[in-house]
């Protein structure tokens, strides 16, 4: 094919012309947009401000949410301490016997080597957590308590500061015997900074920790040490029973005299002394015993021969002559153990250098603590031990004539102190730590969500145990990870609230910019016509409209990102300062993506319909200067076969398919995989759809409500009644334009009120659920694994003294007995049934004291039916005291019956005839009472097994017990009660203490108050370990205290700390219910602030939306406006016409939005209350409602006034010609 140079040159010129044409067109578009901005600055400013405001707020919110794990970490650290991982030595009962270094301690040096090769670990530090008492012996101050139970925390301050452990707490270094003490502890002891206090370590608790056996006391522990070290080789030499052979006092005295003579001889002749030593060593070496045991004996001989034998021999002589009777080696060893045990109960002085108001993650919140540095801990503890040891030995020598006093004569005090002190100086305390606290790297990434936490913890621990071997004798736990995970439910809630707020603000923004653009299109009809007449193509018109939208979108986005960065830096700085953790100050990636997406998509989506509107006009209509949209009539004929299917049908079908997919797949998947986030997202979407659906329905009432409100306004403003028909005509004429404005305002208002009411109601529901579950103002519980229970006698004494000290503090208190199901060695669950023994249901019985209902929060006690045979007294709340009926035996049928204890013959008549024929009395007969048990049961049992207060019933628990149902209730605080039949799977029943004692004694065939009457040895052992002074002999597992007056937080903290003084161990939990409720409400306070901010932004957007809508209304009705001016209406009347219209619109849409928002909030709360069965109380969000309503009125009035402002001062001729 031939190519002509002329043709090629022509193509190049044409291409150049096209390129030049595009450049010129773009330049024309730019100049047009700049000119339009100068001519109509208000539209540009509104669009710019809308993008700026929405993008800034939502991006800042999203960025702050990405930092929220830091807040959750801080909250969790306050609750559980700031150790990411805690390594503790495994109990001696659980340690692997294959590992050579099994120990009850952790070797810090060794374990740090493993940590150094484990990825993800930043550092570790050893700690020692000991229980004891802090004592104030200062007699010059009045004290509530002379001593308080305290946790003594020994730590390496330098190491902890270097790895950030306890970073939010004080960083002052401690020296010598300086300590830091909880402020509440000092208040309880009436001590202050600078005072000298005494610390007493609980040796039995420490020994149970080291030995893994809670039953043996300190004497048994120390004897076991002697037995496993010294006795073991001696048994191989002298026989297994050498320690139990009785040695007569005279033999010991004669032997002591011989030993003195021999010792004097050896000391006078060094060569002979050396020969005797060599002989003894040869004898030991000749014995068939392990090398380690030989070494121990040889070391003892070496130490003894280094001392003066004569002095030790005379010590033996003093021991011998102080003995009053014969003795065994075992008794001597037990005496030594007793001396050591008494010495171990020592105290040491400490100087308080600082009081700690709050732990701030240094340790778990909720208990008294004393902190001291490990650098001086060894010397302080050893000095205290040796001082007490010397005092004990000297005291026994002088005042004890028993074997212990004699054994005290054997002990060389100065020598023992020297040996122990020298040995302690060779101890490197970190190699004997009781726990190892770890801090992880990149904590913000680790604690992003539950899955990340779980995978990170598993990965790090797997690395560690792969390196050490899986039988390494430590166990790893992470209470911080558990606590943080619990807070993610709140994070999911916040995320859903933000998602809903984003959707509402996005809809408002799109509608606002759409209104701007559609208004511009209507106003510029003539301009667009002229551009098209001059050759401007439709495609360039689309580009023009998009560029026009982007002129305020891109600057708004850039300004929003700059503002967001500045504000995000301030928010980050505040979060970093609060949490003492630093991430970075840049905007989070998710927030950046959201900002850019919103900034670009909002104007693009908003332009779809304006572009269609601009392109739909013919050139003739566009050039008609007097054309008005309100005069426009459009007829669009589309053949059905071309469309294929209606848009409405397609939308409805897709919506139904989506609902089915969510119902049949997503909701079950959320439950199966325990995906709380997915479940909340589904609920959130459902409620937003419900809001929109309700809005579409109630929008039918918008018109009649507007007219009714307008009539009310004109009834008040009687001077403007002549304007009624004009305003009604405006409402009718502007209906299509006002519809989107009122719809979006109602939608925003309903969401804001729904969120505000829901937050307020949810906050109250959580507080009520806590109070209902725990019951008292202060509730003490033991964990289910602790079968011993509370020290009832000591706690009662303490509470009685509290009531005597301050008669206005405590109204009453009450103990609960252990549930029969949890009673060790007994028959487990109880089965509840009718007299016909069908149907059956589970129930768990527990005893309460007569005053139980006086100590709980009675507003959560929901009684149902009562036994008519009992006259119930009234509680302060006016409700009947149902527990009173448990102790009222009126109407009970108690039967005395004979029982064949040995069960030799079962039938009564056969047994009687058998013994009558033998003419002898029947043996093993016991007369006992068949007692009818009074009980309170949940109302749900009535519907499941048809038992109520009028139904005789039975309980099977090893045997049948006759039951008298005194009372049914839907809710009893502190117990698991419900009015639903499902309660039969987990429900509890309440009985009296005497009835519970009867059931236990009947089951055990004895009396637990008389241990010797119990046949089972394991039960006797368990009962012997129970605290002394238990009422009815039953272990108590919970305590509730009711205050008589309003108490401050400081009062409650001090009271709780004094009460903790009588807790047996760390298995006892104390709940300050009021403080817990306040903390739950505070958590929702900040979310309510967020909701108010969303309301303010929504109102701001609504203001612009109303302004644009009314400006459009005024311009569309400009001809009518001019005619009204011409026939005599003044400017003020015309202004009031639009103000009345605006007030009618906003009031009507506000009422409908309020109705929908509050209705949905009530529905949501009723759904929650349906599960927890608490009374409903309407919590109206007054602050949010006032802000939105008052803001709506101001918005309507100001926007309508500004809309008329530009026109009312124009001449009538200009208005009638439409030259505005």
From TrEMBL:
TM annotation in the entry: 46-65, 497-519, 540-571, 591-611, 651-673, 679-701, 1083-1111, 1139-1172, 1178-1204
Single GO cellular component term: plasma membrane
Top-level division of the source organism's lineage: Eukaryota
Topological category with respect to the lipid bilayer: Multi-pass membrane protein
Protein name according to UniProt: ABC3 transporter permease C-terminal domain-containing protein
Keyword Amino-acid biosynthesis: no
Record's subcellular location: Cell membrane
Sorted UniProt keywords: Cell membrane, Membrane, Transmembrane, Transmembrane helix
């Amino acid at each position: 094919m031939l190519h002509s140079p002329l043709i090629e040159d022509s193509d190049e010129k044409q291409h150049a012309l096209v390129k030049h044409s595009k450049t010129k067109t773009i330049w024309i578009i730019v100049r047009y947009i700049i000119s339009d901005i100068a001519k109509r600055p208000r539209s540009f400013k509104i669009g710019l401000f809308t993008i700026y405001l929405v993008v800034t707020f939502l991006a800042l919110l999203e960025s702050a949410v990405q930092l929220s794990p830091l807040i959750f970490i801080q909250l969790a650290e306050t609750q559980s301490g700031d150790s990411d991982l805690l390594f503790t030595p495994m109990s001696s009962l659980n340690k692997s016997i294959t590992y050579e270094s099994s120990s009850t301690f952790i070797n810090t040096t060794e374990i740090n080597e493993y940590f150094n090769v484990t990825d993800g670990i930043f550092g570790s530090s050893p700690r020692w957590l000991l229980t004891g008492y802090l004592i104030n012996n200062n007699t010059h101050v009045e004290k509530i308590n002379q001593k308080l139970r305290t946790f003594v925390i020994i730590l390496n301050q330098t190491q902890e500061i270097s790895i950030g452990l306890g970073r939010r707490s004080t960083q002052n270094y401690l020296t010598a015997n300086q300590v830091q003490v909880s402020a509440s502890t000092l208040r309880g002891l009436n001590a202050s900074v600078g005072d000298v206090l005494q610390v007493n370590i609980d040796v039995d608790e420490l020994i149970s920790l080291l030995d893994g056996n809670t039953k043996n006391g300190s004497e048994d522990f120390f004897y076991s040490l002697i037995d496993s070290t010294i006795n073991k080789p001696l048994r191989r030499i002298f026989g297994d029973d050498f320690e139990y052979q009785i040695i007569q006092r005279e033999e010991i005295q004669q032997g002591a005299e011989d030993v003195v003579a021999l010792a004097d001889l050896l000391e006078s002749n060094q060569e002979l002394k050396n020969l005797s030593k060599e002989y003894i060593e040869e004898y030991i070496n000749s014995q068939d015993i392990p090398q380690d045991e030989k070494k121990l004996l040889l070391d003892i001989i070496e130490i003894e021969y280094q001392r003066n034998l004569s002095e030790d021999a005379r010590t033996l002589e003093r021991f011998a002559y102080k003995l009053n009777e014969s003795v065994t080696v075992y008794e001597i060893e037990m005496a030594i153990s007793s001396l050591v045990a008494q010495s171990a109960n020592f105290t040491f002085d400490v100087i308080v250098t600082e009081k700690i108001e709050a732990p701030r993650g240094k340790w778990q919140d909720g208990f008294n603590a004393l902190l001291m540095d490990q650098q001086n801990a060894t010397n302080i503890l050893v000095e205290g031990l040796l001082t007490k040891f010397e005092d004990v030995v000297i005291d026994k020598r002088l005042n004890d004539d028993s074997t212990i006093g004699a054994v005290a004569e054997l002990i060389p005090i100065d020598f023992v102190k020297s040996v122990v002190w020298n040995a302690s100086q060779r101890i490197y305390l970190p190699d004997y730590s009781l726990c190892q606290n770890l801090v992880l790297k990149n904590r913000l990434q680790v604690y992003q969500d539950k899955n990340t936490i779980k995978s990170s913890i598993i990965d790090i621990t797997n690395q560690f145990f792969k390196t050490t071997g899986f039988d390494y004798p430590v166990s790893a736990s992470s209470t911080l990870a558990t606590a943080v995970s619990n807070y993610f439910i709140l994070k999911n809630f916040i995320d859903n609230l933000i998602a809903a707020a984003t959707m509402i603000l996005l809809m408002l923004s799109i509608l606002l910019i759409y209104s701007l653009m559609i208004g511009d299109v209507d106003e510029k009809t003539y301009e667009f016509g002229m551009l098209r007449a001059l050759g401007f193509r439709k495609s360039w018109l689309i580009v023009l409209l998009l560029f026009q939208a982007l002129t305020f979108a891109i600057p708004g986005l850039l300004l929003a990102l700059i503002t967001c960065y500045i504000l995000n830096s301030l928010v980050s700085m505040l979060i970093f300062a609060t949490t003492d953790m630093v991430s970075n100050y840049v905007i989070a990636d998710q927030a950046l993506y959201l900002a850019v997406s919103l900034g670009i998509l909002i104007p693009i989506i908003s332009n779809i319909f304006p572009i269609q509107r601009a392109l739909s006009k013919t050139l003739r209509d566009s050039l008609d200067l007097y054309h008005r949209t309100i005069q426009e009539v459009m007829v669009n004929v589309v053949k059905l076969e071309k469309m294929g299917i209606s848009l409405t049908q397609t939308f409805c079908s897709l919506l139904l398919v989506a609902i089915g997919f969510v119902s049949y797949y997503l909701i079950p998947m959320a439950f199966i995989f325990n995906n709380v986030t997915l479940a909340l997202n589904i609920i959130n979407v459902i409620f937003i759809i419900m809001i929109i659906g309700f809005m579409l329905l109630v929008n039918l009432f918008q018109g009649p409500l507007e007219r009714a409100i307008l009539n009310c306004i004109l009834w008040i403003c009687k001077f403007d009644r002549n304007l009624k028909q004009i305003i009604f005509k405006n409402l009718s004429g502007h209906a299509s334009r006002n519809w989107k404005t009122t719809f979006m305002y109602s939608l925003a208002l309903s969401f804001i009120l729904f969120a505000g009411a829901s937050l307020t109601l949810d906050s109250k529901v959580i507080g009520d659920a806590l109070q209902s579950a725990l019951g008292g103002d202060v509730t003490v519980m033991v964990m289910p694994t602790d079968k011993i229970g509370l020290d009832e006698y000591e706690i009662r004494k303490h509470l009685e003294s509290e009531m005597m000290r301050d008669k206005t503090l405590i109204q009453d208190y009450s103990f609960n007995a252990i549930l029969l199901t949890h009673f060790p060695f007994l028959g487990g669950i109880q089965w509840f049934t009718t007299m016909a023994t069908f149907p059956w249901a589970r129930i768990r019985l527990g005893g309460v004291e007569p005053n139980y209902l006086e100590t709980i929060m009675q507003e959560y006690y929901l009684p149902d039916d009562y036994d008519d045979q009992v006259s119930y007294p009234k509680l302060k709340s006016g409700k009947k005291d149902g527990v009173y009926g448990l102790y009222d035996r009126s109407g009970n049928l108690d039967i005395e019956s004979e029982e064949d204890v040995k069960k030799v013959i079962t039938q009564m008549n056969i047994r009687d005839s058998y013994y009558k024929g033998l003419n002898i009395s029947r043996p093993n007969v016991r007369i006992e009472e068949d007692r009818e048990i009074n009980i309170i049961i949940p109302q749900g049992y009535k519907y499941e097994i048809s038992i109520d207060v009028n139904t005789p019933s039975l309980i099977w628990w090893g045997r049948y017990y006759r039951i008298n149902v005194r009372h049914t209730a839907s809710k009893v605080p502190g117990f698991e009660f419900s009015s639903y039949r499902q309660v039969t799977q987990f429900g509890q029943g309440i009985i009296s203490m005497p009835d519970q004692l009867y059931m236990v004694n009947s089951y055990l065939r004895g009396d637990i108050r008389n241990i010797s009457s119990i046949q089972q040895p394991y039960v006797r052992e368990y009962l012997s370990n129970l605290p002394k002074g238990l009422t009815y002999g039953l272990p108590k597992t919970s305590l509730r205290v009711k205050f008589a007056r309003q108490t401050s937080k400081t009062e409650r903290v001090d009271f709780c700390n004094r009460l903790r003084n009588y807790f047996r161990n760390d298995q006892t939990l104390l709940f300050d219910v009021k403080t817990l409720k306040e903390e739950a409400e505070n958590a929702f306070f900040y979310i309510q602030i967020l909701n108010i901010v969303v309301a303010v932004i929504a109102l701001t957007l609504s203001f612009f939306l109303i302004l644009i809508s009314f400006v459009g209304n005024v311009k569309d009705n400009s001809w009518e406006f001019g005619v009204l001016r011409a026939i005599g209406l003044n400017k003020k009347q015309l202004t009031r016409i639009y103000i009345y219209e605006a007030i009618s619109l906003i009031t009507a849409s506000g009422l409908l939005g309020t109705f929908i928002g509050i209705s949905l909030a009530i529905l949501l709360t009723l759904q929650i209350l349906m599960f927890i069965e608490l009374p409903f109380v309407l919590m109206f969000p007054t602050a949010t409602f006032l802000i939105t309503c008052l803001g709506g009125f101001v918005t309507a009035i100001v926007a309508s006034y500004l809309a008329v402002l530009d026109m009312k001062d124009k001449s009538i001729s200009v208005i009638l010609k439409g030259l505005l």
